[in-house]
Amino acid sequence: MNAPIARLTGTTRVRGAHAFAALERTVMTRPFVSARGFASDTGKGGRTLSEALLEERAHESAAYEPSATASGGPPEPFALCETEGDAEVTLTRSFDENEEITVTFIAQEEPYDDDMLDEDEFDEEPLDDELDLDEDEEGIAINFNVVVSKKDGLSHLDFDCVTDGEIIEIRHVGYEAFDEDNPIIGTAYSGPNFEDLEETVQDKFHDYLEERGINADLASYIVEAHVDKEQREYTNWLEKVSRFVS
Protein backbone atom coordinates (compact mmCIF):
# COMPACT_ATOMS: atom_id res chain seq x y z
CA MET A 1 0.00 0.00 0.00
CA ASN A 2 1.32 3.44 -0.90
CA ALA A 3 2.29 5.70 1.97
CA PRO A 4 -0.26 8.52 2.41
CA ILE A 5 0.44 12.14 1.77
CA ALA A 6 1.30 14.01 4.93
CA ARG A 7 -0.94 17.04 4.81
CA LEU A 8 0.64 20.47 4.66
CA THR A 9 -1.11 23.59 3.49
CA GLY A 10 0.00 27.15 2.87
CA THR A 11 3.44 28.17 1.68
CA THR A 12 6.88 27.61 3.14
CA ARG A 13 7.43 31.37 3.25
CA VAL A 14 5.27 31.57 6.40
CA ARG A 15 8.00 31.25 8.98
CA GLY A 16 6.77 30.02 12.34
CA ALA A 17 3.84 28.02 10.97
CA HIS A 18 3.73 24.31 11.81
CA ALA A 19 3.62 23.57 8.10
CA PHE A 20 6.92 25.33 7.47
CA ALA A 21 8.58 23.66 10.43
CA ALA A 22 7.62 20.22 9.17
CA LEU A 23 8.83 20.93 5.64
CA GLU A 24 12.09 22.50 6.81
CA ARG A 25 13.40 19.52 8.76
CA THR A 26 16.25 17.48 7.30
CA VAL A 27 15.16 14.22 5.72
CA MET A 28 18.31 12.98 4.01
CA THR A 29 20.58 10.49 5.73
CA ARG A 30 23.50 11.50 3.53
CA PRO A 31 24.83 14.95 2.54
CA PHE A 32 22.84 16.87 -0.04
CA VAL A 33 24.56 17.20 -3.38
CA SER A 34 25.50 20.83 -2.81
CA ALA A 35 27.87 19.80 -0.01
CA ARG A 36 30.49 18.27 -2.27
CA GLY A 37 33.80 17.02 -1.00
CA PHE A 38 36.35 18.32 -3.45
CA ALA A 39 39.50 16.44 -4.37
CA SER A 40 42.69 17.15 -2.45
CA ASP A 41 44.64 20.23 -3.53
CA THR A 42 47.94 18.45 -3.01
CA GLY A 43 50.28 19.21 -5.88
CA LYS A 44 47.78 21.47 -7.60
CA GLY A 45 50.39 23.95 -8.75
CA GLY A 46 51.51 21.84 -11.70
CA ARG A 47 48.05 21.00 -13.00
CA THR A 48 46.26 22.63 -15.90
CA LEU A 49 42.61 23.64 -15.60
CA SER A 50 41.64 20.65 -17.74
CA GLU A 51 43.59 18.27 -15.51
CA ALA A 52 42.06 19.79 -12.37
CA LEU A 53 38.57 19.33 -13.78
CA LEU A 54 39.25 15.72 -14.74
CA GLU A 55 40.69 15.02 -11.30
CA GLU A 56 37.59 16.46 -9.72
CA ARG A 57 35.40 14.34 -12.00
CA ALA A 58 37.31 11.21 -10.99
CA HIS A 59 36.92 12.13 -7.33
CA GLU A 60 33.16 12.69 -7.69
CA SER A 61 32.66 9.46 -9.64
CA ALA A 62 34.53 7.44 -7.02
CA ALA A 63 32.85 9.08 -4.03
CA TYR A 64 29.24 9.09 -5.21
CA GLU A 65 26.84 6.18 -5.17
CA PRO A 66 23.14 6.65 -5.98
CA SER A 67 20.63 5.66 -3.34
CA ALA A 68 18.55 2.53 -3.71
CA THR A 69 15.48 4.74 -4.13
CA ALA A 70 17.00 6.61 -7.08
CA SER A 71 18.40 3.44 -8.66
CA GLY A 72 15.09 1.61 -8.33
CA GLY A 73 13.21 4.05 -10.54
CA PRO A 74 9.94 5.85 -9.88
CA PRO A 75 6.99 4.19 -8.15
CA GLU A 76 4.85 2.22 -10.56
CA PRO A 77 3.13 2.98 -12.86
CA PHE A 78 5.13 6.18 -13.41
CA ALA A 79 7.59 6.15 -16.31
CA LEU A 80 10.81 8.18 -16.20
CA CYS A 81 11.85 10.48 -19.04
CA GLU A 82 15.17 12.35 -18.97
CA THR A 83 17.90 13.39 -21.39
CA GLU A 84 21.61 13.81 -20.71
CA GLY A 85 22.46 17.49 -20.53
CA ASP A 86 18.86 18.49 -19.77
CA ALA A 87 18.16 19.20 -16.10
CA GLU A 88 14.42 18.63 -16.54
CA VAL A 89 13.11 15.27 -15.29
CA THR A 90 9.61 14.10 -16.23
CA LEU A 91 7.48 11.30 -14.78
CA THR A 92 4.33 10.25 -16.62
CA ARG A 93 1.41 7.90 -16.11
CA SER A 94 -2.16 7.38 -17.24
CA PHE A 95 -5.06 7.45 -14.82
CA ASP A 96 -8.41 5.82 -15.56
CA GLU A 97 -9.22 6.05 -19.25
CA ASN A 98 -9.34 9.79 -19.64
CA GLU A 99 -6.38 11.38 -17.82
CA GLU A 100 -2.67 11.80 -18.28
CA ILE A 101 -0.50 12.74 -15.28
CA THR A 102 2.82 14.53 -15.79
CA VAL A 103 5.21 15.30 -12.92
CA THR A 104 8.16 17.57 -13.70
CA PHE A 105 11.10 18.87 -11.66
CA ILE A 106 14.37 20.61 -12.50
CA ALA A 107 17.52 18.97 -11.11
CA GLN A 108 19.52 22.15 -10.96
CA GLU A 109 21.50 23.11 -7.88
CA GLU A 110 20.37 26.54 -6.72
CA PRO A 111 23.10 29.22 -6.65
CA TYR A 112 21.94 30.39 -3.23
CA ASP A 113 19.54 29.43 -0.48
CA ASP A 114 16.24 31.32 -0.41
CA ASP A 115 16.57 31.53 3.37
CA MET A 116 19.58 33.81 2.84
CA LEU A 117 17.27 36.40 1.29
CA ASP A 118 15.07 38.85 3.16
CA GLU A 119 16.27 37.61 6.53
CA ASP A 120 14.52 40.53 8.22
CA GLU A 121 11.19 39.02 7.19
CA PHE A 122 11.90 35.88 9.18
CA ASP A 123 13.11 37.15 12.53
CA GLU A 124 9.91 36.26 14.38
CA GLU A 125 10.05 34.12 17.50
CA PRO A 126 9.29 30.46 16.69
CA LEU A 127 5.98 29.02 17.82
CA ASP A 128 5.80 26.20 20.37
CA ASP A 129 5.03 23.61 17.68
CA GLU A 130 7.99 24.58 15.48
CA LEU A 131 10.82 22.08 15.34
CA ASP A 132 14.11 23.08 16.95
CA LEU A 133 16.75 22.71 14.22
CA ASP A 134 20.48 22.66 14.80
CA GLU A 135 22.33 25.41 12.97
CA ASP A 136 24.23 22.91 10.86
CA GLU A 137 21.12 21.04 9.70
CA GLU A 138 20.26 21.50 6.05
CA GLY A 139 16.59 21.66 5.10
CA ILE A 140 15.56 20.34 1.71
CA ALA A 141 12.66 21.60 -0.37
CA ILE A 142 12.31 20.44 -3.98
CA ASN A 143 9.83 22.26 -6.19
CA PHE A 144 7.90 20.17 -8.68
CA ASN A 145 4.92 20.53 -10.98
CA VAL A 146 1.99 18.19 -11.56
CA VAL A 147 -0.24 18.50 -14.63
CA VAL A 148 -3.45 16.47 -14.78
CA SER A 149 -4.80 16.69 -18.31
CA LYS A 150 -7.72 15.19 -20.14
CA LYS A 151 -6.68 13.00 -23.04
CA ASP A 152 -8.53 15.23 -25.50
CA GLY A 153 -5.88 17.86 -24.68
CA LEU A 154 -8.45 20.60 -24.20
CA SER A 155 -8.10 21.21 -20.46
CA HIS A 156 -5.84 20.53 -17.51
CA LEU A 157 -5.13 21.28 -13.87
CA ASP A 158 -1.67 22.60 -13.01
CA PHE A 159 -0.33 22.06 -9.48
CA ASP A 160 2.76 23.84 -8.14
CA CYS A 161 4.11 21.70 -5.29
CA VAL A 162 7.10 21.36 -2.99
CA THR A 163 8.40 18.39 -1.02
CA ASP A 164 11.11 17.50 1.47
CA GLY A 165 10.90 13.81 0.56
CA GLU A 166 8.16 13.03 3.06
CA ILE A 167 5.64 15.84 2.96
CA ILE A 168 3.95 17.24 -0.14
CA GLU A 169 2.75 20.82 -0.02
CA ILE A 170 0.48 22.30 -2.69
CA ARG A 171 1.33 25.93 -3.31
CA HIS A 172 -0.98 26.74 -6.19
CA VAL A 173 -3.63 25.14 -8.40
CA GLY A 174 -4.37 26.54 -11.84
CA TYR A 175 -6.94 25.53 -14.42
CA GLU A 176 -6.45 25.99 -18.14
CA ALA A 177 -8.76 25.16 -21.02
CA PHE A 178 -8.44 25.64 -24.74
CA ASP A 179 -11.49 26.88 -26.58
CA GLU A 180 -10.77 27.58 -30.23
CA ASP A 181 -14.09 29.34 -30.69
CA ASN A 182 -13.71 31.59 -27.64
CA PRO A 183 -10.02 32.28 -27.00
CA ILE A 184 -9.09 34.34 -23.96
CA ILE A 185 -7.99 37.84 -24.84
CA GLY A 186 -5.72 39.34 -22.21
CA THR A 187 -4.66 37.65 -18.99
CA ALA A 188 -6.34 34.44 -17.92
CA TYR A 189 -7.30 34.06 -14.26
CA SER A 190 -4.55 32.03 -12.59
CA GLY A 191 -6.53 30.83 -9.58
CA PRO A 192 -6.66 31.83 -5.89
CA ASN A 193 -3.94 31.67 -3.29
CA PHE A 194 -4.07 28.05 -2.17
CA GLU A 195 -3.79 28.91 1.51
CA ASP A 196 -6.89 31.11 1.19
CA LEU A 197 -9.06 28.14 0.22
CA GLU A 198 -11.22 26.52 2.86
CA GLU A 199 -9.30 23.80 4.72
CA THR A 200 -11.73 21.16 3.51
CA VAL A 201 -11.11 22.17 -0.09
CA GLN A 202 -7.36 22.05 0.46
CA ASP A 203 -7.68 18.55 1.94
CA LYS A 204 -9.76 17.40 -1.03
CA PHE A 205 -7.08 18.64 -3.43
CA HIS A 206 -4.53 16.57 -1.50
CA ASP A 207 -6.86 13.57 -1.76
CA TYR A 208 -7.20 14.21 -5.49
CA LEU A 209 -3.42 14.10 -6.00
CA GLU A 210 -2.95 11.12 -3.71
CA GLU A 211 -5.49 9.15 -5.69
CA ARG A 212 -3.32 9.78 -8.75
CA GLY A 213 -0.13 8.56 -7.11
CA ILE A 214 1.24 11.89 -5.89
CA ASN A 215 2.07 10.58 -2.44
CA ALA A 216 4.92 10.15 0.03
CA ASP A 217 6.48 7.33 -2.01
CA LEU A 218 6.72 9.61 -5.02
CA ALA A 219 7.97 12.48 -2.83
CA SER A 220 10.85 10.32 -1.59
CA TYR A 221 11.74 9.37 -5.16
CA ILE A 222 11.65 12.98 -6.38
CA VAL A 223 14.17 14.11 -3.76
CA GLU A 224 16.52 11.16 -4.35
CA ALA A 225 16.20 11.40 -8.15
CA HIS A 226 16.88 15.15 -7.98
CA VAL A 227 20.14 14.48 -6.09
CA ASP A 228 21.14 11.71 -8.50
CA LYS A 229 20.34 13.62 -11.68
CA GLU A 230 22.11 16.77 -10.53
CA GLN A 231 25.18 14.77 -9.54
CA ARG A 232 25.33 13.00 -12.91
CA GLU A 233 24.93 16.28 -14.77
CA TYR A 234 27.66 17.83 -12.62
CA THR A 235 30.18 15.10 -13.45
CA ASN A 236 29.25 15.34 -17.14
CA TRP A 237 29.76 19.10 -16.95
CA LEU A 238 33.24 18.60 -15.48
CA GLU A 239 34.19 16.34 -18.37
CA LYS A 240 32.75 18.59 -21.10
CA VAL A 241 34.38 21.74 -19.72
CA SER A 242 37.67 19.88 -19.31
CA ARG A 243 37.63 18.93 -22.99
CA PHE A 244 36.72 22.50 -23.96
CA VAL A 245 39.63 24.11 -22.10
CA SER A 246 42.22 21.46 -22.96
What report would you give on this structure?
The protein has 246 residues and is of the alpha+beta class. It has one domain (18-32, 40-245): Mitochondrial Matrix Protein, Chain A (Roll). It contains 5 helices and 6 strands, in the order H-H-H-E-E-E-E-E-E-H-H. It has helices at residues 18-24, 49-63, 68-71, 199-211, 216-245; strands at residues 79-81, 88-95, 99-106, 142-150, 155-163, 168-177. It has a 6-stranded antiparallel β-sheet with strand order 1-2-3-4-5-6. Strand 1 (79-81) and strand 2 form a beta hairpin. Helix 2 runs antiparallel to helix 5. The N and C termini lie far apart (53 Å). Mean pLDDT is 79; it is low at 3-35 and 119-137.
Q: Kindly provide the name of the CATH class.
A: Alpha Beta
Number of strands: 6
The number of helices is: 5
Largest sheet: 6 strands, antiparallel
Which range best describes the helical content: under 10%, 10-25%, 25-40%, 40-55%, 55-70% or over 70%? Answer: 25-40%
Order of helices and strands: HHHEEEEEEHH
Unreliable stretches (pLDDT < 50, length at least 5) are: 3-35, 119-137
